[in-house]
Write a structure and sequence with these properties.
oxygen-dependent coproporphyrinogen oxidase, homodimer
Chain lengths: ~325, ~325
């Protein structure tokens, strides 16, 4: 059965995914670790947004957020679509869920995922997607502090399994896009060990609506399952103050990436998005240390070897 | 006597100012709090840089840096001069000192200063400034956590005194530019309580070389004197953990400004500058808290009133 390509279906999926995700992680954390905030922003034609921000701050997840947002605007910013410049200036909608999880324990990686739908109105009925332009984007990536090969291989196996039904080229292609995107040029390092990243999934590049929407759901489910399994494996392990300090130092890099390079963050802040929701991706604590260069044989120095693209499968 | 307008004179002044500044602050801090790093970057025609980074990490200054750098390139980036687009692409030199000081005690403000000279080669002799295009830029600004009116008035009085010999319009003009520049749009707040900010000081806008260079020196001296006097007044005062936490929270805003908006930082990182020197402006620790809104009558809430432009004199 074909899914009716309408905005409400996607919205329902995204909201379910969001609460499912947060509930799963809340189940292993302390009670009352979740804050849910409904918000609205703007009430003019130019830009209108609403959303639900779910924040998790507990003993397992030091700071995490799953943010649903739905923005309607009367003029698509050129930065929203690199390959679709002819659509700039038209009415648009953007809807998605963004997740960043910063666990307390430095032995547990930080992780991020995003699934989103853009639609641009080229027809009188903005909600009938058959008659308008749409595309999906998203992905997930993992940022370990003390990387464990087994976990990373599992992470990429899961990513590959998620992509496999959609074609042999999908995993290698989206894996490469992930390595390219989550790259800190000024540090010459990747943000972490990668995963998947994609944008502009639509009919023109061979993705029917149904197929693309199914894929998006698969991406969300895979992220939840894979990351939860990695968190459960390590979150109760003892760690040292030195490891915690190193985690905070590396979180400085996460801040650098998000504020200097992340298109969603920079675009969101510049276009008048809801600052507190966008910056839920910031860690609770971060630190900087001048010219810190751990011994390449130390566990901290070993991380450098993981911050360049590598074939994991 | 006219100063000979040559690069070496400026360089000597900048290096003296840098070591004078760091020595002054080191005199009230613990021994061995200063790290001096000479560096070179690039050895090709496109971009060549060298510099001296002076880092101070002690009990009074948790993290501070005074960074001298001298960069030569074969093609001026368009972003280097907003008002001089016809010079883009020509050989250039940029030389300056940048200072950011993050004291340990939350009752002491953070402060920043910068003095810089750009020259663009339009003649065969790159070092004879009479025959090439040059301009000075710079300024200083203060970022208190627990603002004290008396200090801020003193800060602006010193700024005014520094500008006064150069014309009545200079202080109000450069003060306004400071308020405009150090503004976080996504937070709708200024970085702090301002000071001076200016760019493109040159003959075209009425500044002879001698006059501009004298002014730059005055700016450096005023900053050192005023900030040192504010630090000495407060650094030994007792403070609470709550005040320290608030300082770290506000330092998150400092990070946001520098990575999202600061032209020097963003330009420096994008153009292949020395990352560790550029990011000496980062605090040692910063934190983020979701939707933190202190009671407007609390000392923390009171800060909001100071984060909009105000006439202090």
């Amino acid at each position: 059965m074909m899914t009716t390509p309408c905005i409400e279906n996607i919205k329902n999926y995204l909201l379910n995914f969001q609460s499912n995700f947060i509930n799963t992680f809340a189940s292993i954390d302390n009670p009352e670790c979740v804050i849910i905030d409904k918000w609205k922003k703007g009430n003019h034609e130019k830009l209108n947004g609403n959303g639900i921000s779910s924040l998790i701050e507990g003993e397992v997840i030091e700071r995490g957020g799953a943010n649903f947002s739905h923005v309607k605007g009367n003029s698509l910013p050129p930065s929203a679509s690199i390959i679709r410049s002819e659509l700039a200036g038209k009415p648009f909608q953007a809807m998605g869920v963004s997740i960043v999880m910063h666990p307390y324990n430095p032995l547990v990686p930080t992780a991020h995922a995003n699934v989103r739908l853009f639609t641009v109105q080229t027809n009188d009925n903005p909600d009938d997607l058959n008659k308008n332009v749409w595309w999906f984007g998203g992905g997930f990536d993992l940022t370990p502090y003390y990387p464990i090969d087994e976990d990373i291989i599992y992470w990429h196996q899961q990513a590959q399994k998620c992509c496999q039904p959609y074609g042999e080229h999908v995993y290698p292609d989206f894996k490469k896009q992930c390595d390219d995107y989550f790259y800190l040029k000024h540090r010459d390092e990747t943000r972490g060990v990668g995963g998947l990243f994609f944008d502009d999934l639509n009919t023109e590049c061979g993705w029917e609506f149904d197929q693309a929407f199914n894929f998006i759901q698969q991406v969300g489910n895979t992220f939840l399952e894979s990351y939860f399994s990695i968190v459960k494996k390590h979150y109760q392990k003892p760690f040292t103050q030195q490891q915690k300090d190193f985690q905070l130092y590396r979180r400085g890099r996460y801040v650098e990436f998000n504020l200097l390079y992340d298109r969603g963050t920079v675009f969101g802040l510049q276009s008048g998005g809801r600052t507190e929701s966008i910056l839920m991706s910031m860690p609770k604590h971060a630190s900087w240390q001048y010219n810190y260069q751990p011994d390449s044989n130390s566990p901290e120095g070993r991380l450098n070897d993981y911050l360049k693209p590598r074939e994991w499968l």
